Amino acid sequence: MIAREDPQSSVTDYFQKDAAFWEKLYDQDDVFSVIHRERAARAMEEVGRLPLLLGSRVLEVGCGAGHVAVRLAERGFVVDATDSTPAMLDTAAQNAHRAGVTARLNTAIADVHSLSYPDATYDLVIALGVLPWLHDPRLALQEMSRVLRPGGFFIANTDNRARLTHLVDPLLNPMLQPLRRGLGRGRTNGPSTTTTWRHEFDRQLGAAGLHRRRGFTFGFGPFTFFGRPTLKGKAAVMLHARLQGLADERLPLLRSTGSQYMVVAQKGR
Fold it and tell me: Are the C-beta atoms of 160 and 166 separated by less than 8 Å?
């Protein structure tokens, strides 16, 4: 019998090889790194708004280097930090040890498409930077909802298809995708992420029994034109900060065109 190829193997291999890059990402000053740090910070702000008790059980899917998982454990939650990549989990375990939270943080290999945990196990499930890399995000949402207790909370993000950084670049604008396909453009080597319209993601959540409580976009950079960077360094970070401030003030257009769409949802009782 011929073994079936794992559809996620290319993604796992990618993160396995580049684990050191994703660990250092949180220490860099470029706009890409700044936005990723902001994603973690915003997720933790949303956790702080939820009515969760000390000792609540939390599942983080795609924990990476464990930065968010460690913060959750430091707040007194019991955390299962999972990832598909052994190198990432090794780093997460090391970070947990340094933070002194190993008693409340467990790491484990997991495939979000088929979680081994029982139904209704967790009070909170978090998946940051995960769904865009999956071959079947709808199945993953169903699985994460399954292990969430009724009334439990879900925090996740997806890559926003209507992101401003793509709208201003003809090589990335989603409206021009048919033309690029006809010209044979847009092919990439290795794994690529999938962007999603915000309303489409909201429907996927609803289909998994998760009801959105709050949603917002964030992240304005790096900007390119015909694939070439238009701003770098501090200038790119300053532009992101200015646009993000306006987006947070609910300015039309900007409030919906951040590169990432983060949602706080709750499972029906």
Answer: no
In whole angstroms, give the CA distance from residue 80 to residue 77: 10
For 58-69, what is each residue's pLDDT tens digit? Answer: 999 999 999 999
Q: Which amino acid is at 217?
A: T
Q: Residue 197 has what pLDDT?
A: 97
Could you give all domains of the chain from N- to C-terminal order, each with its CATH number? Answer: 9-184+194-267 (3.40.50.150)
Q: How confident is the model at residue 6 (pLDDT cuts 50, 70, 90)?
A: confident
Q: Please check whether residue 158 is in contact with residue 132, taking contact to mean a CB–CB distance below 8 angstroms.
A: yes
* CA pair distance 109, 107, nearest whole angstrom: 7
Give residues with Cβ within 8 angstroms of 77, minimum separation 6: 52, 54, 55, 56, 57, 58, 104, 124
Say what the pTM is: 0.93
State the Cα–Cα distance between residues 40 and 56, nearest whole angstrom: 19
Tokens linked to 243:
């646009």
Instruction: Please state the separation of Cα 167 from the chain's center in Å.
Output: 21
pLDDT value at residue 192: 79
Q: Which residues pair with 126 in a beta bridge?
A: 60, 155
